[in-house]
Predict the structure of cysteine desulfurase.
Amino acid sequence: SYPIDVASIREDFPILDRKVGGDFTVPGEGEDDDLPLVYLDNAATSQTPKQVVDAIVDYYYGYNSNVHRGIHHLSQEASVAYENAHDRVAEFVGAAGREEIVFTKNTTEAMNLVAYAWGLEELGEGDTVVLTEMEHHASLVTWQQIAKKTGASVEYIGVDEEGRLDMDHAAELIDEDVKMVSTVHVSNTLGTINPVAELAEMAHEAGAYVFVDGAQAVPTRPVDVKEIDADFYAFSGHKMLGPTGIGVLYGKEEILEEMSPYLYGGEMIRSVTYEDSTWEDLPWKFEAGTPVIEQGIALHAAIDYLDDIGMENVQAHEELLAEYAYDRLTELDDVEIYGPPGDDRGGLVAFNLDGVHAHDLSSILNDHAVAVRAGDHCTQPLHDKLGVAASTRASFYVYNTFEEIDKLVEAVDDARQLFA
Ligand code: PMP
């Protein structure tokens, strides 16, 4: 049995009733759309419950309007809803308040915001940015390029055989030259849950800031940014039952206060003359132009939905499915799984079937209506280190079942026989 009521949760997701197959160039008009969808690509994007879609519909049918500047009724309603969404996010991740919550387009933009607004000003020759070998490109490429622009160097905390961070190596690397430690919280490839609080402590002792990429963590477990003592923490709405087009940057108020804006324009200024300008209060200083109003309101609804389930329960469900998938896939002896053991990982399993390219495998899985991801999952250097070009990743969420994992395993077994 499950720690959550999967059957009733599934009723909130109409897309899970879809059948797929055949020619999919025209959405919904496949030639033989006859197999029930098994959606196991949640680490890329989760599905959206009716409650979240309803919040979007209510906004557009009821009070669609620009925020902040209007004194008319609709604008006030939209402003209150948009501002409340910041409060709700703050509460959800343990931030002090809306002043610490900046809405961005996604995790990637949150990362770029800090890299440009903080990194370009604060980094220089002789400074080091410490990353991990399992960083997503969102963090790896961004810091790599900002380091190139500023003359800073980049070092990587190594990953051991089991896919865990080598904390002795971390201790060696994090010295007084380090200005930023940027680490993924839950790896989107290995499923490793990193000791981010410990890394934050090490960073702070060395006088560095810590940025935590929580794209895979916030959707799947309780996260408290103050407990971690992160200076910055980022995640995306579309991986936690929310819409695309919204991400969140948490930043400690005193740090955000000190930072210059990243984007300039309307909505982020207090006063402007032909000569100079001053900035709005936090968080609006970092939200230039018409912001992600609909998306923010919908993210609020997604958080309400997750909170109703309870994040401890979401985590328990994730762990249960990850362990089951790990064990079942391990039974197929020519499958190699990356990352820590089944009982100590986030809700995803990336693997390879011996002698079969991940793209071929996922294409066969697709014939079974099993949706997974094949590729390097935006961790190309990590795949290079693992000695493979790509892997197949199945990732689970609140609506997934043991039966769906059985279908995945059957499909992998089918591929195995086909390519034998
Ligand atoms: N970091 C991690 C760990 C991720 O899994 C992802 C999404 N694959 C990202 C960052 C980037 O998220 P987004 O594409 O929403 O910016």
